[in-house]
């Protein structure tokens, strides 16, 4: 088999464990005993179809290793022979590649390093093609409409990629008797400076089936009209396809997206407060939204930072300055000095108050979550409560009529009725928040509607 090549890709310490991930399912399941058998070819460097068997070799908490081999599969004599491993970690931003090892690639393959000596790069296996150039993350989560991300890869981090989720489509592969629905991921990959960098560059498309993993791959390498093409298909597996999670974007972080809200509360201010927002920056599932008052009793400017990860949509930080012409009730918690306590100055303050996530990643009817005392959110807000997805309802506001996802949140901030009560929020696909009703514990009701 020859000596083993080993390449370590350390995962960022900032990545968090994805609470929604599970060894038993997800986009890359890794339960004990899970197996997959693939067949792959390269139109120039591996023209004989080669079978590879993949198994789960290690599992530790949120990390796991897949091992692959060509042995014992009745491959033709002229097929490639090899073995290796790929290690992954499930994080809140998706599936991250942390390590890989293998037997040396065939000497006939392009050298994907500056020099051939001690080159830790290879595309001589199915999973090496899957992870090439997309290490952190290999697959972003959650996969929702418009998801795109940038990543790097290669032994010396010299391979760059830009990946896009193109939605789901039905595919047919030998592993299943009927077509299956798969998430289609297209990656534009570039490598510069390696001896074989045209081969390390190109366009790769991978079809992922929920509950199974990659089932099909096409890598169109760089190098002109006659450049090689790598293809792989899943021949067999003991994993069962599942319906993919909803991919509706209920809170788009799209640069340039704008909107205007009207906020009323008959008890605390007679004149409506009108505020506008704009998504200023967004990348890899996170974004910055600026907000300012248009008219009304609260003169405010602020910036809000949100991120969408596998554990849901969360508010990371906020800063604002306001000069209010009305006196609003105070908020807690008592444990914080008054200067450190939050205020309801904006529509987004009403929306994200209490605890994260604002929305779960899989925003399906019946999903529910609650506050945790041992959390950053409890230290900031001092709020206990529960939240649930009520379902999808039709709602009409000045901005239009929408089929919106409804989230109901019960909030309790001891000693502060203004920060307690029931909040109901409506989120429209590709639009975001369109309506909010907060029935406060002091008997007042804040109502927010989207104007445009």
Radius of gyration, in Å, reads 25 Å
Look at the structure and give the mean pLDDT.
92
- CATH architecture of the largest domain, please? Beta Barrel
**Top-tier CATH class of the largest domain:** Mainly Beta
Estimated helix fraction: under 10%
Give a quick rundown of the structure:
The chain is mainly β and 452 residues long. The chain has helices at residues 126-131, 347-352, 376-381, and strands spanning 5-8, 35-42, 46-60, 63-69, 83-91, 94-102, 139-140, 148-153, 159-171, 180-191, 202-209, 213-221, 229-237, 258-265, 269-283, 286-295, 298-309, 312-324, 368-370, 384-397, 400-412, 421-428, 432-440, 445-450. It folds into 2 domains: 5-237, Beta Barrel (YmcC-like fold), CATH 2.40.360; 258-450, no CATH class.
Report on this model:
With 452 residues, the chain is mainly beta. The protein has two domains: 5-237, Beta Barrel (YmcC-like fold), CATH 2.40.360; 258-450, no CATH class. Helix content is 4%, strand content 49%. The strands form two sheets. Strands 1, 2, 3, 4, 5, 6, 7, 8, 9, 10, 11, 12 and 13 form a 13-stranded antiparallel sheet that branches. An eleven-stranded antiparallel sheet has the order 18-17-16-15-14-24-23-22-21-20-19. A hairpin with a 3-residue loop joins strand 14 (258-265) and strand 15. It is elongated and about 85 Å long.
């Amino acid at each position: 088999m020859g000596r083993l090549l080993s390449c370590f890709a350390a995962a960022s310490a900032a990545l968090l464990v994805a609470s929604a991930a599970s060894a038993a399912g997800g986009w890359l399941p890794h339960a004990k005993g899970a197996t997959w058998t693939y067949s792959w070819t390269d139109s120039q460097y591996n023209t004989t179809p080669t079978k590879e068997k993949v198994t789960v070799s290690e599992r530790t908490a949120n990390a796991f290793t897949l091992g692959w081999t060509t042995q014992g599969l009745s491959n033709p004599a002229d097929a490639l022979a090899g073995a290796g491993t790929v290690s992954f970690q499930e994080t809140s931003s998706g599936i991250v590649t942390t390590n890989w090892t293998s037997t040396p690639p065939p000497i006939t393959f392009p050298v994907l390093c500056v020099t051939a000596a001690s080159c830790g790069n290879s595309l001589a296996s199915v999973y090496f093609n899957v992870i090439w150039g997309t290490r952190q993350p290999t697959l972003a989560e959650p996969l929702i409409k418009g998801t795109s991300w940038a990543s790097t890869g290669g032994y010396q981090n010299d391979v760059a990629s830009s990946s896009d989720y193109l939605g789901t489509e039905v595919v047919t592969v030998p592993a299943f008797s009927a077509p299956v629905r798969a998430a289609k991921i297209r990656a534009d990959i570039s490598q510069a400076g390696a001896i074989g960098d045209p081969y390390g560059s190109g366009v790769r498309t991978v079809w992922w089936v929920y509950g199974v993993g990659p089932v099909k791959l096409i890598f169109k390498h760089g190098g002109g009209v006659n450049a090689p093409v790598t293809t792989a298909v899943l021949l067999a597996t003991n994993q069962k396809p599942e319906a993919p999670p909803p991919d509706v974007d209920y809170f788009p972080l799209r640069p340039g997206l704008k909107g205007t809200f009207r906020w009323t509360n008959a008890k605390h201010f007679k004149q409506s407060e009108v505020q506008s927002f704009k998504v200023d920056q967004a990348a890899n599932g996170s974004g910055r939204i600026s907000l300012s008052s248009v008219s009304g009793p609260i003169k405010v400017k602020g910036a809000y930072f949100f991120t969408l990860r596998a554990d849901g949509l969360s508010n990371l930080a906020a800063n604002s300055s306001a000069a209010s012409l009305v006196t609003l009730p105070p908020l807690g918690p008592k444990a914080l000095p008054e200067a450190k306590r939050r205020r309801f100055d904006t529509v987004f303050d009403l929306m994200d108050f209490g605890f994260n996530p604002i929305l779960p990643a899989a925003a399906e009817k019946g999903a529910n979550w609650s506050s945790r005392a041992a959390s950053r959110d409890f230290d900031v807000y001092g709020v206990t409560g529960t939240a649930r997805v009520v379902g999808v309802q039709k709602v009409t506001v000045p901005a239009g009529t929408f089929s919106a996802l409804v989230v109901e949140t019960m909030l309790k901030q001891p000693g502060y009725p203004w920060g307690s009560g029931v909040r109901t929020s409506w989120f429209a696909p590709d639009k975001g928040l369109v309506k909010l009703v907060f029935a406060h514990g002091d008997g007042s009701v804040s109502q927010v509607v989207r104007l445009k």
